[in-house]
Known about the structure:
The model has no long low-confidence stretch (mean pLDDT 95). The protein contains 18 helices and 14 strands. It has 444 residues and is α/β, with parallel strands linked by helices. The chain is elongated and about 75 Å long. It folds into 2 domains: 2-198, Rossmann fold (3-Layer(aba) Sandwich); 205-444, 3-Layer(aba) Sandwich (Rossmann fold), CATH 3.40.50. The chain has helices at residues 10-21, 33-40, 51-60, 70-76, 98-110, 127-138, 158-163, 175-184, 186-189, 200-231, 235-243, 264-277, 283-306, 334-344, 357-363, 373-377, 397-403, 418-423; strands spanning 2-6, 25-29, 64-67, 79-82, 115-119, 144-148, 168-171, 195-198, 315-319, 348-352, 367-369, 382-385, 408-411, 427-429. The chain has a 6-stranded parallel sheet, with helices on both faces. Strands 11-10-9-12-13-14 form a 6-stranded parallel sheet. A two-stranded parallel sheet has the order 7-8.
Amino acid sequence: xxxxxxxxxxxxxxxxxxxxxxxxxxxxxxxxxxxxxxxxxxxxxxxxxxxxxxxxxxxxxxxxxxxxxxxxxxxxxxxxxxxxxxxxxxxxxxxxxxxxxxxxxxxxxxxxxxxxxxxxxxxxxxxxxxxxxxxxxxxxxxxxxxxxxxxxxxxxxxxxxxxxxxxxxxxxxxxxxxxxxxxxxxxxxxxxxxxxxxxxxxxxxxxxxxxxxxxxxxxxxxxxxxxxxxxxxxxxxxxxxxxxxxxxxxxxxxxxxxxxxxxxxxxxxxxxxxxxxxxxxxxxxxxxxxxxxxxxxxxxxxxxxxxxxxxxxxxxxxxxxxxxxxxxxxxxxxxxxxxxxxxxxxxxxxxxxxxxxxxxxxxxxxxxxxxxxxxxxxxxxxxxxxxxxxxxxxxxxxxxxxxxxxxxxxxxxxxxxxxxxxxxxxxxxxxxxxxxxxxxxxxx
Length: 444
């Protein structure tokens, strides 16, 4: 079976590499000649653990290739996946579908024989219907079906998520298209992966509903964390106590500075706009979006408060700027609001991130980028952990104290234990847990 993937961003590249690992012949298409040249040379445009090795293996085996020529790739394909970006549309928050529709129009002119056109991009309800209309209008003789097949890939563990998914959702009522999709995902039947066949509209909505529910869960525990700080409860214990309830589950109950990344912010907002448009508003989701936006801004205030209420003229170390570990993705990362807020209050920022600094340099101004976490802490007045990279989970606290001007840590990911930090002589602030006074406040 032969597959063409339109778009070599995060979803397209991971999907293409994983399908080729299944033994499928895959051609990944992108208009960006520099990106295609990088991929042909074995260099990855994104950071994702294991991806470079997977691409190299399957390219060497002849199952995975890259091109800028859409017509040739689509003409040979049994299935064409649209995996282009759907960012929030500037001004109103709706998903920008211009790249999806442009891809559909180009695909229409290249179809040769029966082809399944699959929307892998995250798209609002009704997009598949419009893609179908565009192709049929541009090429009335085309023999095709349009299928919705949303992705559920977590950055940092995307290959595992593709190879061993919780489920695969396929939206189509066409038996012919179902047969093609069953063939593509046949290797997963060996793992007894649930394959959910449903309508296109339902499939499109499943993706948004899943991401929105998880974003709501994160926002809920963040608000509980705020309450814990006031009443001197421990959000870790609260999360464990409720997470052991099988109806709730323990995942996505980790308090922090707010959700970010390529999916949750734009998908929650797009679902809100879709619901408004059809006259069925989602008040809970509207509130989630509002709370999360404000939370990221308030985290800068938390850092300032932990530094005595004033950071003007002070140097603050920031450890981690990506929205989560094991990715270089800076999209809607809480660090963007936190760093901007600290800079607006007069602070100088020294920062380190294991993978995200190249991306961050493009969008964050006046930051001193350092070679490692200890260089970042040198002569700083406080250190703030924003992203929970493994490198930051076991810092040499004595070395850190020797480098910092004052032993102050603001841990926005709750990596450390408050009592242990107090025993080490740190003034330690975290999320949703009562502070513990340092054993020796004068210790540096």
